[in-house]
Amino acid sequence: MPRIGYAWSAVGRHTPAFQRRWARTHPDTDLHLVRVNSATAGLTEGACNLSAVRKPLEGRRFDAAIIGLERRLCALSAEDPLAARRTLRLADLGDRVLLIDRRTGTTTPELWPPGSRPETEDTRDIDDWLTVISSGRGVGMTAESTAHQYPRPGVLYRPVRDAEPIAVRLAWWRNDPHPSTQAAIELLTALYRGE
């Protein structure tokens, strides 16, 4: 049985379709999604045998395949003056407090040019991150999958036009790949392509 770990948002809007298609095309192989807020989304903890991650895993113990790309979105309070805009630019956020999860997050101040980098504040997980954002104390930058997985009253998500997209990877133990690895890669890649 493949257990796919994820730290924050699984595969976003593709998550329900992935689960349904998997059940239809692999009726004898149960699939479970497991949320583990760690850098490997549960691989090193033994919670899963595959993981959906949005930054490369360190070390030669792991292998991964890029299954798709996601836009970067800014998460901000609905009360923020920038919430009235349809899209944002990195320069719009340079004077804000940027909330980051150093273990699993994809955004660091280095996304901004030197001299215009935002101040940062650490958060521990998605709920902490969203709670601080809804209060207006800071903003976040995240993959678009977070907006699909975690709509929250008081929090809006806006595309950031000049921020490069985030690669979504399916990762596994290099010396012990699960028998369903290739099938999962193919199905997830097709979903990200819109097939």
Automatic annotation (TrEMBL):
Domain LysR substrate-binding: 3-190
Keywords of this entry: DNA-binding, Transcription, Transcription regulation
Record has DNA damage as a keyword: no
A GO CC annotation given for this chain: protein-DNA complex
Any one GO molecular function term: DNA-binding transcription factor activity
Superkingdom to which the source organism belongs: Bacteria
Pfam families noted in UniProt: LysR_substrate (PF03466)
Family named by the database record: Belongs to the LysR transcriptional regulatory family.
Alphabetized PANTHER family for the sequence: HCA OPERON TRANSCRIPTIONAL ACTIVATOR HCAR (PTHR30346:SF0), TRANSCRIPTIONAL DUAL REGULATOR HCAR-RELATED (PTHR30346)
Protein name: LysR substrate-binding domain-containing protein
